[in-house]
Write a structure and sequence with these properties.
This protein has nine helices and eight strands. The protein has 315 residues and is an alpha/beta fold. It has an eight-stranded mixed β-sheet with strand order 1-2-4-3-5-6-7-8, with helices on both faces. α3 crosses α9. It holds the Pfam family Abhydrolase_3.
Length: 315
């Protein structure tokens, strides 16, 4: 059954549409992105305090990649276990600001440093540009760990939705390249299979925030026509081998089109012997992890994800 708070938020969204506010998928991508950015700025007036916030930029495949570092309260001295976080938004919307509060909470609750990555977005930079940025950011932080105050042996990657997919891809890419990879992965309702429609993509296609129309809007901007949908950078669930991947925390939502492929990814990890914590929040919707002003289940999920990662790193 849908949680009361999720039902209330969906009713508010429906009322706004009926009163004339256009649906995101009816807008040009640049206009829609600006609208989401403005909504996110207004959504939380008092973000959690952290010990320090440092903005910067690192070299990327096609110019600098902006980032934001969050150092947790109550942790001093030495290098820190670090979560490299990739925001969600279908590779079209979202940025450091939209996920600022989420990253602050994850840092404080896990007692780990968080580095949020502002990768390039589509349609200006279609696939595989965002993925290329995500991989480059991981490599740079790994190789220059001291400059980031990070412990190179305790690097995690994580993200929500598109960002969760990127984190999964980074882990597979580092393993396949036989490079030092992440020690942990935090996958929040990740998109893991673009090659087919799962049962949840069909059953949750309308009425639960992330609709089929919205997913198609993201897809049209992100993936050029004729792209092989079995490419593991689009469909990491299709990888033949899941051994050698890092321990994972995988979270899904019950009324989310991406629910089944997130669960399937967790199952593949478990079957391969990868230590995996899988959690489903049955009564809520896609996006709840960051929509914490409206969906208090998101606060619980933030705490749970951070606790699992913090325990893994011994913080």
């Amino acid at each position: 059954m849908l949680d009361a708070e999720a039902r209330m938020l969906l009713d508010l969204m429906d009322a706004a549409t009926k009163s004339g506010r256009p649906k995101l998928e009816t807008l040009p991508h640049a206009v829609g992105r600006a609208a989401v950015d403005k909504m996110s700025e207004d959504s939380e007036a008092d973000p959690p305090e952290v010990a320090q916030v440092i903005d910067g930029a690192m070299p990327g495949p096609r110019g600098d990649i902006r980032y934001r570092r969050y150092q947790p309260l109550g942790v001093t001295g030495g290098t820190l276990p670090t979560l490299i976080y990739y925001h969600g938004g279908g590779f079209v919307i979202g940025n450091i600001e939209t996920h600022d509060s989420t990253c602050r909470r994850l840092a404080n609750r896990s007692r780990c440093q968080v580095i949020s990555i502002d990768y390039r977005l589509s349609p200006e930079h279609p696939f595989p540009a965002p993925i290329d940025d995500g991989i480059a950011a991981f490599r740079h932080i790994r190789d220059e760990a001291d400059a980031f105050g990070a412990d190179a042996a305790r690097l995690a990657v994580g993200g929500d939705s598109a960002g969760g997919a990127m984190a999964a891809v980074v882990c597979q890419a580092m393993r396949d390249a036989q490079e030092a990879g992440p020690a942990f992965q935090m996958l929040i309702y990740p998109a893991t299979d673009s090659s087919k429609e799962s049962a949840s993509r069909k059953s949750c296609a309308e009425g639960y925030f992330l609709t089929k129309g919205l997913m198609d809007w993201f897809w049209k901007a992100y993936v050029p026509a004729g792209t092989d949908l079995a490419d593991l950078r689009l469909s990491p669930l299709l990888a033949r081998d899941f051994t050698g991947l890092p321990p994972a925390f995988v979270l899904t939502a019950g009324y989310d089109p991406l629910r089944d492929e997130g669960r399937a990814y967790a199952d593949r990890l478990i079957d391969a012997g990868v230590k995996t914590t899988y959690v489903n929040y049955p009564g809520t919707i896609h996006g709840f992890f960051s929509l914490t002003r409206f969906l208090k289940q998101g606060l619980k999920a933030n705490d749970e994800a951070a606790a699992v990662m913090g325990a893994f790193f011994g913080t």
